[in-house]
Amino acid sequence: MNQDEPTEITEKNTVGEVSNIAPESTHAGDINTTSNTNVTPSDKHADHDCGCMNNQEYNSMQRSYIYAIGRIRPVFRSLAVEKEYAQVLGKSDTSGLTDMQALKEVLLKKENRYLLRQICWVLNIEGLDAYVLQPLDLDDLEYFINAFHPPHEPSDVNVVIGVKGSNCDPHLCGGLSLPIAIVTNIYSFDVDFLIKNIPKPQRQDEKKFRETSKEIFYRIIQLADNFGTMDVHRAVNYLAVRYSAIYAKSAEMFLDGNSLSAVEVVPSRLSLSRKIVDVIFTYVDRKSDVISKFFVRVDVTEEFPFLVTKLSPYFDR
Fold it and tell me: How confident is the model at residue 123 (pLDDT cuts 50, 70, 90)?
């Protein structure tokens, strides 16, 4: 798909959706939570990086940005690493813990950090392994393990922001040959907790609004082929986790008897020196078939998308 072509996601019989991570205080409608983890790149290179990239290459590479929503999971780099972990596990007190909880417990111990450096972290999106995650600094591995929350619940979600690199050497990451995501920011959050932080419109029923918000969120993150690299997908993913107004508007439209029929992303007329897209939400009245559209502009020029204009009515030109 060409990133300059309009991308339309059409579904019928819509219901609601969920919310959000780390607010940007300059934008009205952001959802305030404290369940995020910031990873800041530094000049120290991570030497466990699947053998693909160093800092000089990173600084000179042509940037292909990632803003992806999924779940991270650990992978042993080799059979030898797995066997070493098994020996360490046998000497640890992990009674009452699941396998994944025991893994996290072991890796969090300072004396086992050598094992943590031998773990690959993979972002899984909708059941498919999408990226091998690479920090720019070994110290940032702590953020990876902290973002891993076993046992996985359906509402556990991670957001990865970074730069797409070359493919990982399969010999260095448990046989996986996936694109590397060089991570500059990683969020972990519980969807149910985040839903509670979405401001509820005054005339909305509390329970109905939360149900609506939750369904909308899951619809967005389940969009086909959304690996968070195309500008259109980065914009939609950004709005899904950062902009609560889309949930409030959808709940309002549902209350008035409308369905969310499509989400369309098109280049904005304001795109001159920067990449700006219009994300258009189309609602159809269930009785009269009257169409109502609302849109929000998002700047996707650089690694961190941001809001250009707030949600407002959209008129076809």
Answer: very high
Query: What pLDDT was estimated at residue 299?
Result: 97
- Whole domain around residue 156: which residue ranges? 36-191
- 84 in any annotated domain: yes
User: Given 170, 191, 212, which residue is the final one in a domain?
Assistant: 191
Whether 83 maps to a domain, the answer reads: yes
Query: What is the C-alpha separation between 97 and 85, in angstroms, rounded?
Result: 16
Q: Structure pTM?
A: 0.76
> What domain count does the chain have?
2
Mean pLDDT of the chain: 79
Residues 186 and 104 in one domain: yes
